[in-house]
Predict the structure.
Amino acid sequence: MRTRQRGDPDERTRPPEHLPPSLRYRDPDAALAWLKDAFGFAEKAVYRDQDDTILHAELRLRAGLVMFGVHREEGWMGGTTPDALASPAGIYVVVSDPDAHHARACGAGARIVRELADEPYGSREYSARDLEGNLWSFGTYDPYAHQ
């Protein structure tokens, strides 16, 4: 069952095309709790099967959205078993206060892989691995502001 949360953009404010990342976790319940605690995401929707396993979850951070589901040993849609540490992909999240976000992530035990720093292109940002190794970067650089 899907419930609308306060702060969800409605049909009038959401861009017609958007690009929410989708991840797979071996322990989606732990990921759900950890992403909320460490990175400040809010639960938008969680769909479970008859065994209470998360099949699909949606978490929101302001106007941004990330989706995830359960890892499958046989891979996903023809892929192989996921290995987050071998992935060339990462997720970048624009935040207004990277210092506070960094402090929150550190307090929750996030593994910081790039310390908080001011970058030559004007951003203040850091990078961390989540509890299963996916790479997340948080900073003030907003590519939409530079169009």
